[in-house]
Amino acid sequence: MSEAKPHNVEWISNLRFVALVAVIMLHASAVLLAQYGKVPISYWFTADVFNAMVRFAVPVFVMITGALNLGRNYELIDFLKRRLLRIITPFLFWSLVYIGYSWYNEEISFENDTWTNVKLVLHQLKYGSSYHLWYVYMLIGLYLIMPILNKFVCTATQKELLYFLMVWLLVMLFSQPYLSRFKPVVELRYFEGYIGYLVLGYYLTVKEFHQKHLRLLMLLLFVALVAVITIGTYKLTLHNYTTTTLFYEPLGPFIVCLSGSIFLFFRFSNPTLPAFVKQIRDFTGQYAYGVYLCHALFLYLLDLLFDISYKLCSPILSIPLTTLICLVLSVLLTWLLNKIPVIGKYIGG
């Protein structure tokens, strides 16, 4: 099954921008979410609501990657050179920046021995020098398998794609803590992980839907899932006396449905945006990867230097405000880095 798709359709541009804001808000509210029992319950519950609303961010990024890159004809070497080079060089630059920040923050220390320091840096690069960089390691793996997966997608029927997705969903379901004991002793690793989001993004992009009011149904489903995830997390946390993230699992059924619902909502939404809004969206979108790489540093620095975090005021205001400030600064820095002659495009992202 193959269908030509434009690289920059409007709804994908809108969705990419929303997902970028969502991932920053996710990390801006995560610190408060971890403070259960140390902050007023109303503050913690606000972080719970924000987290539930934006947990689709990374899965939707992967779905967009699948929508734009699967079902297309390209040369293997050309694809890997173009994609991996664009990902790896900014990633290495920012990994070193976060290693430097960890040293400055006295989280790691360098010795007088050069080889010891080299091993420390390599260790940091192996496991990730900042909490959010796990996404890049995952993305590199997806890009390595994508040319092979693309061959399947290009020739598969809708039934075959649906078969793949159903097996992926079942494997994912039986991997959940409450069902893992029922998982059969069958080798099912081929269907695990974020690979399913790639195929899901492609499938939901090319499939024809004839249901009336689908956009409204997806919006209602999204709101209902946010409520279930919020309340479920709240109840489990009360029961366990510590923040419990079972409902937040990105490879769990609730987040898969949440991500699919907002993906389809945007696919069938065609809002008329003012020209300046489109300009902001498109300008931000072209630096989305760089913004992802550097936003964690700004969240650190905003809190450390200016006390701008959830603690600034009521979290219902401070979390969106922190998100907005971090987004603006991240876009500005990424834009400036890309303006550096010769090396800018390799380190900016």
Short synopsis of the structure:
This protein is an all-alpha fold and 349 residues long.
The total strand number stands at 0
Q: Label the overall shape.
A: globular
Q: Estimate nothing, just give the exact number of structural domains.
A: 1
Mean pLDDT over all positions: 92
Relative strand content: under 5%
Label the structural class: mainly alpha
Contiguous uncertain segments of 5+ residues: none
| Biggest sheet descriptor | none
Q: What Rg, in angstroms, do the CA atoms define? A: 21 Å
Order of helices and strands: HHHHHHHHHHHHHH
Q: Please bin the fraction of helical residues.
A: over 70%
Distance between the termini: 32 Å
Keywords: Acyltransferase, Cell membrane, Membrane, Transferase, Transmembrane, Transmembrane helix
GO cellular component, one term: plasma membrane
Organism: Mucilaginibacter agri
GO molecular function: O-acetyltransferase activity
